Fold:
Amino acid sequence: MLIKLAGLSLWNRRITLLLTLVSLTISIALVLGIDHLRNQAKESFSKTLSGTDLIVGARSGTVNLLLYSVFRIGNATNNITWQSYQELEKHSAVDWVIPISLGDSHHGYRVLGTNEAYFAHYQFGQKQHLAFAEGKIFEGVYDVVLGAEVAQKLGYTLGDKIIVAHGSGDITLSKHDDKPFTVSGILQPTGTPVDRTVHLSLAAIEAIHLGWQSGVQSNQKISAEEAIKQDLTPTAITAIFVGLKSRSTTFAVQQQINEYADEPLQAILPGVALTELWQMLAMVENLLAVISVLVLVAALLGMTTSLLAAMNERQHEIAILRSLGASARYLFMLIELEVLLVVSSALIFGAAVLSLVLVAAHGYLAQKFGLFVSINPFHSYTFLGAGLVILLALLLGALPAFVAYKRALNKGLTQAT
Amino acid sequence: MEQSKNALPAILLKNVKFGWDDKPLLNIGDFRVERGEHLFLYGASGSGKTSLLNLLVGINIPQQGDVQILGQSLTGLSQRQRDKFRAQHMGIIFQQFNLITYLSVLDNLLLRAEFAIQNKHNAKQQAIGLLSSLGLSELLHQKAQHLSVGQQQRVAIARALINSPDIIIADEPTSALDSDNRDAFIELLFASARAVNATVVFVSHDKTLSRFFSRSLDMRILAAEHIQEPAQC
Structure:
């Protein structure tokens, strides 16, 4: 009967309560959503690179090196020489090396020069290797392998011709239009920056830059055919991904690289650097979390306010219940039960709204931002959080409940008419 | 105790003083209502009748003196015990707004049964029987807010009777009714009260109603009985 009474009483005040319920639902969906995105971002972030023990680049900041080599964000301040790469390749502790050469772009997508080692050793997620959706690795100098998003967005298929632009803006004035490339392969989606990368061979990078000096094409043009005949061994690359034979040697090798006499180099541990970068982003992330929690608290306070305001209208109801023999405690329980019903339904609606939004936005996010957000927003601690929300609501609800209790004791059977 | 209980008056107030914030509202030396009696209490608003009713039903207790209902001293009971006592022994009918408007007629009775009846499994049968005996069987599942005032007051009687109360307390129950409905209401109330042998305390500002009752009392006289004040104890 108590539950029926609470339910029908709420239903009786459904119009005012609807607004409370809507604001609670929105804020709960918000808190859940932000928490979910946070988790997803962190997860996909840490999945970007795996299996690589060291990243080597010219000396700059740790985060900077990570950003340009892994996330294709920003530019290298300096290159490293091909000699250094060869030295490192020969190092006894080193299992494999992936050379990376950055600097050009194609319709805003970064162009990355590398070799077969990239396709053999680059790993992401849970040590997954890159796989081809179509075609194969580049064979000729003017072959190109596209990331999944690049191919999909720009509508390229195998055999299409593309032109690479010099520099990294979406709109660049200088294009390597004298040397068009043919799509030889398209990778499967990975949910990492690889999807947004155009892969060329190191030789191709050399070839398109023949006759260029300080970013400007000189007068004597070298045609595509002539270029192939020249020595296309690179003189410099941007970064190197290193895999070691044994992880135990990581720090020793890192130190050797950092102290390399011939050139100022820097080796970073991707895991450590990723954590460092994530901590920088965590500021924003925590701020979002705090804001969403504050919104929730505001909504709960709003609910308390409307319940308190309703106490005046409900004086009859309370007087009647008292005359029937309802104890003050019963009235307290009644109000708290109402709070429980409102908050539980808000939790259910909030979760439902978020799930619907995720289902609806899932494809869009993946397509537009390459963001693979899982549809299931619930984590092991979600229910603990829901419990906390209910607890907080009951705590706040104790205020109107206490007013009902007090009024029951003092006002007695007085009826406001 | 149990045997002599029926011999005790239904209501007995002795040397009761009651008020808020040192402002005395009631000062009653001796007030007694016998079992089965139908008492009319005449009182305008502000005469202290609400305070008296709150004392009778055990919502408030006096600062001084004793309130005995059916031989049970309410002043000796805790708030919860008084709530329970009220639920079990008393039926209360208000001026208006007797019912929880969003509940059906039947649920209004069952809500009362929740507090008043020990044996709850036949409460529903009892409620339905009671409603039909008062000619309300067609309204069983109507929301209370859709009833006329006259119908509401009849449901209020049915609800007051569900626990076969020893005392029925009615606070201006007819003030919202026209004269035909009023007379019908009082007759129904008396008939119902007689059926369960209940004592009736009926409070109203309408003096003309006193003709229905065997005894009438003026609230003003009752509330300020200085006569017996400190002497008897």
